[in-house]
# Entry
Amino acid sequence: MNKPDDLFTISVIGRGDTVAYGPTREQRLEELTIPVLIFGASGRTGRLLVEQALSAGHTVTAFVRNRSNLSARHPKLHIVEGDVLNPDAVDAAMLGQRAVVSALGFSGRKGTESLVKAMENIVAAMRKYRVHRLICMAPPPAREGWARRGLIGRLLSPFLPKAPAIHAWERQLDSIRGSPLEWVLVRPTRLTDEPARGTYQVSVGWAEVPEGISRADAAMFMLEQLQGRRYVRLSPVLGG
# Structure
């Protein structure tokens, strides 16, 4: 148990109290609305992130593979078409940003390897341009009680090995944790397409929360971390 998350267990409701650790920068009033770069902006969660970020007054750069997949239009929205696996494309989009939000998702083992490479490019560009805050959506912890729920899942969990893709993603999360960035790794238990409820449960550590949270609520939580400090360098798990 060498991850920082394992030092304590806290469960809170909605915007309740929690703790964070490690140094954070002083925040100025003008940072309440900032230039934000969103990766995975054309996905189901990404589109909600773009919509909510614009509603909050942020200047949004939406990084997409194909601009036709993002229909949103707004004076403060800049759409960048590129490949997140191309470090030059990520580098160009990073210039002038103050924070990064990632809702990237790739399926299968090769997809996870691509996600690892994408995060390497993002972190490298952030460090180059001194962009401090990274809000990244990550899978729930692959541990009994999180990854496999229910009676059958709990009974079988000790006998089911982790997939190589899970190992690769966990290694990438460790590399993010080891960076000097002000990272928040947001780990929803299971994303749904239900309407936003405006409330959710957050666990820091291994206290369980109800399985399932709407993409709209997950996006709301992620964007709250652009200004908040309570989850900096933590991996909060979200449930409805």
